[in-house]
Amino acid sequence: MDTTRWKSILVPREVYEEIKRLSKVEGRTIGGQLRVVFDWYNDWADGLVETTPDFSKGGSNGITKSGSGSDTPKSGL
Fold it and tell me: Considering the entire predicted model, what is its pTM?
């Protein structure tokens, strides 16, 4: 593995299983799903996201950005 480009992270098993499930539903790799979660967190921390995502439906439904309405979910591609 090219350690200048890729790193491993340790997460609890239940976190891994949920990210794996979401990545499959959303049509992404696990790394791609982590990027989406990280980007959402950064938007939330910057005050750009008003609500938390509703992952109970298996997608990123429920994400609302300030002044822009709902994000289009990635599932169903």
Answer: 0.57
